[in-house]
Every structure is written in structure tokens, then in C-alpha cells.
Amino acid sequence: MKCRVLLPAVLALSIIACTPPGRPSSASRVLPPGEVTNFDILYGKNCAGCHGEEGRGGPAIGLGDPLYLAIADDSTIRRVAAEGVSGTPMPAFAQSSGGLLSNEQIDAIVKGIRTKWARQDIAASLNPPPYAARVPGDAKRGATVYAVFCSSCHGADGRGGPKASSIVDGSYLALVSDQGLRSIVIVGRPEFGFPDWRSDVPNKPMSSEDVSDVVAWLTEQRPQFPGQPYASAQRVTGGLQ
Question: Looking at the chain, which terminus has fewer C-beta neighbours within 10 angstroms, N or C?
């Protein structure tokens, strides 16, 4: 009778003894970096440093802003994440473009951004200007648009005012793309108190043409050779006389 009682215990001990000590179970397996598809991990490691925790913005625009997500579709976000933006600090993250992330990981980031932060009612209710300009802007008209919508914060010549810093600084313009300027004019930078296209002038939102024109004026201020010394009295191109 005792032998029958002890037999299961002996078998159990034998099985345990045959398991190599220190061997992790399948549940505790650490995923190689290339297999991680958790959005929070991918965003935290690759995006948060520039775009901010929870997409609230930092050195770069906030990807968690529902207004930004109302104008930028998934294909746009995926392209920028995968290929980067030439001439700016935005790197390419896809392996196909020299980065470290797989296509599956890029897709997980795009899906996570949309799922976590987008609001479906924003685009329909606000009708913002389109993400990309439909026609080239007019820089000459853009100087007038700047005076109306932007000068109260950034100063009459764009070199800074009581509420905001210079928007024509050569170092800044050398690091931001034309599309980046357009996105900021439309969406604003709420984390810095920078208004969106509706709020520069009370009850007078900017039109898509206004946005295109002021961006064209701004791009005219970009130095030909970024980083080269220039006189402190640098003339602002196309400024109002």
C-alpha cells in the first residue's frame, strides 16, 4: 500500500530532476527586438523621444493630436515613419530604408497611433485644410497673410515677438521641411500654446490658400547654405515695406 502512495511522488521528483536547472519556461521567453510588435514598447523606444510621451509633442509635432490625425492618413504616417524626411532630423525606421524596424513593426506603430489617439469626429466637424497643398503657394501674398495671422506673436518681420520666438531663423528653417511647416500652421503646437489654423485671428480661420501662401513665404527665408554665418541684420525676403 505504501509503495502505491509513494510512486506518484517519486515520478514527479524524477521529472523535476530531468528539467535542466535555470532553463526558462516558454512563457518567460524574451522576444528578440525584431519580433516586438507591442505598440507601447515600439512607440516608447522609437518615437517618444521626439514626439513626446503619449504623443503629446516635444521637439517634433505631437502624433497623438487628434487634429493632426484628422489631416494625416495612415499611408502618410507610414511613409514618414518608414522612409523618414530627407534634410530633417526625422530618420528612416524601416529596414528597407536602412532602419531597424520590420514592416510588421512599422504597421504596428501606425495602427497603434490611429487606434489610441484618433477621433473620428474631428475631420467631419472641423473641415481642416488638407494635409498637402493642392497648388503651390504665392510667397508674395504669403507676406500679407503672415502680417494678418502670425505677426502678433512672431513679430512684424518674423524674428520673434512678445508671445513667440523667431519663425524665420535660418537654423530652424534648415531643419524643418515645407510639409512640416504646413502641418504646424494647420495643427499648431498646443503643448507650446501655438494656435491652430482657426485661432490666430478670432472668428477668421485661415483658408487652405492662406496656409499654402504663408508656407511659401517662410520657405523663401530658408538659407541656401544652412549653418553658414550670416549678418545679424539679415533681410527678410518678401517682407512688407
Answer: C
